[in-house]
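=== RUN LOG ===
request id: a7f3
mode: sequence -> structure
chains: 1
length: 196
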Amino acid sequence: MRKAAFCLLAAALMSGCGAAPVKRYFEIRTIGTAEPPLPRLERRICVEPAAVDSPYDDTRILYRVTPYELKYYPYEFWVDRPGRQVTAAMAEFLAKMKVFSVVTEDRTKGEPEILLRSRLHAVEEIDGADVWEGRLAMDIEFLDAKSGAPIVTWAFDRKTQMLKHEVGILPAVLSRILDEELRKAVWELAHALEKK
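=== RESULT ===
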């Protein structure tokens, strides 16, 4: 009798154990479309590591269902911390678009003329009852590398609707926002340098 009960218990436990949830990893990347073209600035730039506000400095993907509550997805992650991804995406964008003669993320490699310094304030998904949005909020600053004086400061806080209620759409939405805002900041920098 005990053997039969043990077999039944083992079978019940095994049937309740399904496959473990699969972890998924996502990346913020540059889209870097060639059109419209950007100005060519014959200068060397160093993209410094982005600073990140504390709730977002995490590989877990953050979302909110109300303005007052933050949650993290249990099985969806960034491939790296958002600050590192945004830094790499900005450097890749500037190199791909051939805006500067040299783009680096290491200040010791050559002598940059311009520094790109940034702070990430929000990188999140907002899940409303009917509409889901991706939100990216940042400060971007171009500085003179020798004096440290700011040349251009660009700040934004943008939300874009996600056409599908699926976390897998979020990285593309955030990547598009980053590209569009960095494009605007580059034009501001070009205008500021013309006046010097």
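=== NOTES ===
DSSP finds three helices and nine strands in the chain.
The chain has a mean pLDDT of 89.
=== END ===
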